[in-house]
Amino acid sequence: MQATNLAIGILFVLGGGIAAQWVAWRFKLPAIVLLFALGLICGPGLGILHPATAIGPYFHPLVSMAVAFIVFEGGLALDLRQWRESGEGVLRLTAAALPINWVLGSLAAHYVGHLNWGTAWLFGAIVVVTGPTVVLPLLRHTKLRPRVAAFLRWEAIVNDPIAAILATLMLECLLISSSHTSDASLAAVEIGPHLLFATMFSIGCGIFPALLIKFLSARDLLPEILRIPMILAFAMGVAAICNLLMQGAGLMAATVFGMALANLHVTGMSELQRIKESLGVIVVSCLFVLLTADLQRTVLSELSWPIMALTFTVMFVVRPLGIYLSTIGASMSWQERLFVGWIAPRGIVAAAVSGVVGLQLQEAGYAGANMITPAVFALIASTMILHGFSLRPLARALKLTLSDEPALAIMGANAWSTNLARVVHDRGVPVLLVDTYAPALNKAAGVGVPVLRAELLSVEGQESLEERPADYLIATTPDAIYNGLVCARMAPDLGRQRVFQVSPGIARLDLYHGLSRDSRGKVLGEPAWNFSLIDSRYAQGWRFGSYIADETISETRLTDGPAMLFMIIRKGTAIWVSSAEDAIPAEPAEGDIIVLFMPPGQEDASRTGLPVVDGPIPAA
């Protein structure tokens, strides 16, 4: 029976969670909403999952460790250079906004939610957090401008452990006050030194192992096979140790450890980036399903009009007002302040903390303590749904997003790649020509092609590309090995089916003796289309051209003639780059843009801005 229950739990938690993530990716939906709904259905809805009962006393410690991993993952993305580039806005959101939101949230809990003062201050401490478990997945699915994304990312990751510690501090104050005839000064005297020591110890526990990793790596004392296991073990270990001192301190230690690794620039972190992103998706999926499924029907039955009024007051009054007050005079536009003031979804940390502290307050006999969990749950559900679905439309309306059109990056500026970029650009498709050679880029910029002078294999190049993110990449330099390096570096970010390179030659494409598929991109076009062939044909007068497909165009007509089919573009949907390694060749639909490399006399005769090219597709 236990084995059957375990299999059912794994099916719904792990299988259902990943299925929800895929559906969200496929249909561009907020994954957190689907995960939340799955947990509600499997838990309080159908009664299939009972995580706390099945796992027992280890449930909350396991949740705490999982959250520590998530904030550690977020800490790895907190480069101090982004803080400096984002101006004082990040500092305002992480230092000034938190206490203001705490005070305003507590006042709302007392006067709107009718909670007594002690419970209200605890509620305010819990809901100041904007969890990275919710914010980071939303950022992955929305092309926000880097500065705005940095605001939300820093606030969520930095405030997460601080809010958890603040809630723990408030809980201890309330418990001590209740046992000392409400002597608040005595509570502060007892807790203050403990809080200071726990905070400093957590910061030290985060920094020391990062310095140790840096020391061992620099002296070749850390084998590659142990690098990632040791880093993950340190992350979990420091979180567990610091949680023994104070609940929530482990989150701070894990965050500091991640930040220290990111800013010490420890070598070999790229492998960890890939692994932790994959693990992060699994952990977030499982946590959302488990914590939502663990909600009791009695909690849902305690939802009342005062709680709903409190929820909407926090969302529509407390958060916007707190952000407005904390960012007065900051170098943030009104659009950024409005956007950040609205987007504040609460997540796993708020759910986990409310469940623990609410139970302890009830056991201590605090009136109204039973309302903390349903009040926090109502806020989590409302913010995830409303913020999850409104983030993208609001960002678009405020012009805080990058283009949603599929974008193409071309690495290597030469005569024919510039011609290709210009043809694509003239069709209104976002394109970026990247190179390190300024004169070649100047020629491209002179004909209107967007350019970027950067080395894509450098940190600076990666950061520069984030400001104008690409969805597809074609490496077109004469160096086949360099093209392969660029494609291999970009493949984990863009997807291995979206990075292409000029053919390195038929012999090098041999699956056994040639270049490994993991070390290069998909071949552009046919194996014989190497750089020399394309370059020589360009010198002979071949040029790129584009056509709008109609219902008479077929794959056979595109490939029968001398023209070389390079790509098919469906505006707002995808770019299909021609490759002999495609299992199923792309079929153009009516309205698609077809880009061909054609001999003299057949090139595109259209002018920029015309929707359709006069003339048929070149025939054989």
TrEMBL record:
Keywords: Antiport, Cell membrane, Ion transport, Membrane, Transmembrane, Transmembrane helix, Transport. InterPro entries: Cation/H_exchanger_TM, Na+/solute_symporter_sf, NAD(P)-bd_dom_sf. It is a multi-pass membrane protein. It comes from the Bacteria. It is found in: Cell membrane. GO terms for cellular component: plasma membrane. The keyword Zinc-finger does not apply. It holds the Pfam family Na_H_Exchanger. This is Sodium:proton antiporter. The lineage of its organism: Bacteria, Pseudomonadati, Pseudomonadota, Alphaproteobacteria, Acetobacterales.
